[in-house]
Write a structure and sequence with these properties.
- It contains three helices and two strands; from the N terminus they run αβααβ.
- The longest helix is centred in the first third of the chain and has 23 residues.
- The N and C termini lie far apart (40 Å).
């Protein structure tokens, strides 16, 4: 009986900690998969012209590959979002972006992040 109660308490504690981390954890801003390439390009141009660090998605950058509008937009949107301290509305990009709770970094391409 005591072992079962201990397992239940352990499970509930784990659940609460994980719930707290999701609410209070790190977030990233990425391109929506249903956004058109034209809308993504427009939003990408805006982000890069408005303070996002887009040097990693240039041809010599660590995040150039894959060379797709979706990947480049995700990196730029996230840079803009992080530089705006994740302010409300900074991850929208005219409806082409969404907040993600999973780190989109891959290989040597590291997406900046910060805690809420």
């Amino acid at each position: 009986m005591a072992v079962r109660a201990l397992k239940l308490v352990s499970f509930l504690l784990s659940f609460l900690v994980n719930s707290f981390l999701v609410v209070q954890g790190t977030s990233w801003c990425v391109a929506r998969s249903d956004a058109t390439n034209q809308a993504l390009q427009t939003a990408l141009d805006y982000a890069c012209g408005s303070g996002a660090d887009c040097s990693p998605i240039q041809s010599s950058g660590l995040c150039f590959l894959p060379n797709t509008i979706q990947a480049h937009a995700s990196y730029a949107f996230n840079s803009y979002y992080q530089r705006r301290a994740m302010a409300p509305g900074s991850c929208d990009s005219a409806g082409t972006a969404t907040v993600a709770k999973t780190d989109p970094s891959y290989g040597s391409c590291m997406y900046p992040s910060s805690q809420r």
